[in-house]
Specification:
alpha/beta; Diaminopimelate Epimerase, Chain A, domain 1; 9 helices
Length: 206
């Protein structure tokens, strides 16, 4: 994730937020998270597979193993390798169906929307751009005023465009985000006296 959100990407995101906010009344908050759920099932699955392999190896090997070794050693191996999955997040991504990943990302995005106070803008014009690195997904959560003003399906199309851009790095995502300025201006035009109510810097979390 450090490569995705390098100094250039941080600058690009700040510039993209300013571009959208200068063109419209929308208040944009960008949050980047390492992951949106623990996905412990992947640890359990990998641990169980290697515990079974270890047990089968000991049972059918030519060498004789003691009964305590047969009972304990495979499970020790399973626990160790299951724990090692924490260092290999791509395994958790592969072992989790896309629908479940989407569910966790959206749920975490909605919680972050409230935690970050994106719903507290005067015109109910907040937009959370929630980026979840492990899942390689981006979710958009719009406040009620903005959601009603946008064309039908616009948020979904924007989400998909941002998610596809993740393969190009953080700067690529920021470029796509800046391209939404006209869409947001059409939904909620910039008004004289608009005040920047939310921070423009990227919110980086665990």
């Amino acid at each position: 994730m450090a490569k995705f959100l390098d100094d250039d990407a941080r600058t690009a995101f700040k510039r993209a937020v300013e571009t959208v906010e200068n063109a419209s009344a929308v208040e944009v908050v960008v949050c980047v998270r390492q992951r949106s759920a623990a996905y412990r099932h992947a640890n359990v699955a990998i641990g169980a597979v290697f515990a079974f392999i270890g047990l089968a190896t000991m049972l059918y090997a030519e060498e004789d193993f003691s009964l305590p070794s047969i009972l304990v050693d495979p499970f020790v191996v399973g626990v160790l390798l299951g724990s090692l999955v924490e260092l290999l997040p791509q395994i958790k991504r592969v072992l989790t169906p896309p629908a479940i990943r989407r569910h966790h990302v959206l749920r975490a995005a909605r919680a972050t929307f409230l935690e970050r106070g994106v719903h507290n803008t005067t015109g109910r014009s907040g937009l959370l751009v929630y980026i979840s690195w492990l899942e390689r997904r981006i979710a958009l959560v719009a406040d009620s005023g903005l959601a009603q003003a946008l064309p039908d399906g616009a948020l979904v199309r924007c989400e998909n465009a941002l998610t596809r851009a993740m393969r190009g790095g953080g700067s690529a995502v920021a470029t796509v985000l800046a391209g939404f300025a006209d869409l947001m201006a059409g939904a909620m035009p910039h008004q004289d006296g608009d005040v920047n109510e939310l921070p423009d810097a990227v919110d980086e979390g665990p």
